[in-house]
Amino acid sequence: MTERTAPPARAAQPQATASATAPEPASAPPPLSALQPVGRLRSDWPRTFADRLTAPLPGLGALARLAREGALRPRPGALRDTPLLPFEPGPLPHAGPGTLAVTWAGHASWVLRLGGLTVLTDPVWSRRIFGTPARLTPVGVRWEDLPPVDAVVISHNHFDHLDAPTLKRLPRHTPVFVPAGLGRWFTRRRFSRVTELDWWEAAELDGVRFDFVPAHHWSKRTLLDTCRSLWGGWVLTDRDGRRVHFAGDTGYGHWFAEIGRRYPGIDLALLPIGAYDPRWWLRDVHTDPEEAVRAHQDLGARRMAPMHWATFVLSSEPVLEPLTRVRTAWEKAGLPREDLWDLPVGGSRVLVP
Known about the structure:
With 353 residues, the protein is α/β, with parallel strands linked by helices. The protein is 15% helix and 18% strand. The longest helix is centred in the last third of the chain and has 12 residues, at 321-332. The protein is globular, with a radius of gyration of 20 Å.
């Protein structure tokens, strides 16, 4: 595989013309950041990223209310429709360098084929993760059916997005792109090509650009590491300009419009629609289906593929409700039905040039 690193961007020199000081049009996106080298690790990240939070973390009062109401347990009957959850595994589609193909393995795990690369997002192939019941649906793609994995992107360190048993299956030379502050977790496990990025930073692998972008979320894996690493989503762009936005885990907020401004022409947005009830507890960190559709519109994306539902029980809404609500919200927004890629677990779609 080939890698390309651009030199740091130079500051623009003032010109002796009136136009040099004229402000750029408000609609003009800012220039893309200079590329960081693949394999870049830093030891000077801040001790905490709590200043990046877009909402305060819940305090003891909220935790007490949650325990009192039992609000994260499924409501009576919420799991009744589990047998109806869409699960239709099929063979991975052929995808050459000029094809964008996506396959939903479940939750936030996707097999992306872009620019000739196979990229996994937040890969969780385990049947059970820490603190949750077993999966409602099997993994949509058998591990042994995967082509060689060219890269992995991680959105943040929560257990349903960063799964050690799954990552242990990968060759240790697999390129892994991770949020700032999370690199040591991988190097301790002997991954040798780990790239840490801050928001709005990017690196390039074999002609595919990996931009790390903000999300409305947080990070925590142990009792002592709250917000010690960053969280976010990814925008992947191939040589021909095809773009996928993988939102990771996020609430609704202003970042979607800014991402859309900086990265115009997103072909497909992978957006979470589940784990939203009760709203008083989860509004700041998980979009509900209606907010996901708004986020899609803010991004200016051409298509949307829902995720983060039908896999793990993380909240109390009925298991099929995210799908019915996102379809209704999409229709109410007047968006073309064919642009909602509401895939079953294991399903694939291909965007041919």
